[in-house]
Amino acid sequence: MKNCSTLFLASLTVLLLNTSCSSTSKTVSASNSAPAKSIEASGYDAALAQQLGADEYGMKQYVMAFLKSGPNRDQDKTVAAALQKAHLNNINRLAEEGKLVVAGPFLDKGEVRGIYIFNVTSIEEAQKLTETDPAIQAGRLVMELHPWYGSAALMQVNDTHKKLEKKNVAE
Questions:
Q1: C or N: which end of the chain has fewer Cβ atoms within 10 Å?
Q2: pLDDT top residue among 4 and 69
Q3: Which residues constitute the domain of residue 83?
Q4: 154: which residues sit within 8 A by CB, 6+ positions away?
């Protein structure tokens, strides 16, 4: 009977060790003190991460632009409205091309008028894109550009937005 108990305990120990070792190979730990979390349980999607350009933290590099009031804001209402429409059309074009991930105005009418988040990795690339904006060309707006590190999930904002908008802002 003692041999059967020893054999049972040895078998149970081997089973537990095998289970523990196989689940340990599927875990990731954020730090040495944090409990391990299963990749499967986290919802990690390797294909989506690769598609969106995510690094191991689910992040990627962008360039953020602060749109500021430019030196030439004295256009009459008709010209200002035409520039605004052309500015919005340019935003839509850059979004369709996948170069502009997020754009929007600030609502406080201050010096900083809005933001862009460009899907590029250099200030030079973003600068070339800002130069296509008619409001920039006219001096109505100026851009301040900064490299920025944010969630790769932002790459899905434009597709989701299309499902939410009843009317396009440029219309």
A1: N
A2: 69
A3: 59-164
A4: 62, 101, 102, 117
Nearest residue to 63 (alpha-carbon basis) of 8, 7, 117: 117
Evaluate whether residue 53 is within a structural domain.
no
How far is it, in rounded angstroms, from Cα 116 to Cα 157? 13
pLDDT, tens digit, for every residue of 106-148? 999 899 999 999 999 999 999 999 999 999 999 999 999 999 9
- Residue 82 to residue 104: CA distance in whole angstroms: 18
Domain count for the chain: 1
Q: Is residue 97 part of a domain?
A: yes
Does residue 35 lie within any of the structural domains?
no
Whether 2 is in a domain gets the answer no
Q: How many CB atoms lie within 10 A of CB 64?
A: 18
Distance from C-alpha of 63 to C-alpha of 65, rounded to nearest angstrom: 7
For 34-79, the DSSP string reads: SPPEEHHHHT--HHHHHHHT--TTSEEEEEEEEEEE-S-----HHH
Helix, strand, or coil here: 17?
helix
The domain that holds 128 is classified in CATH as 3.30.70.1060
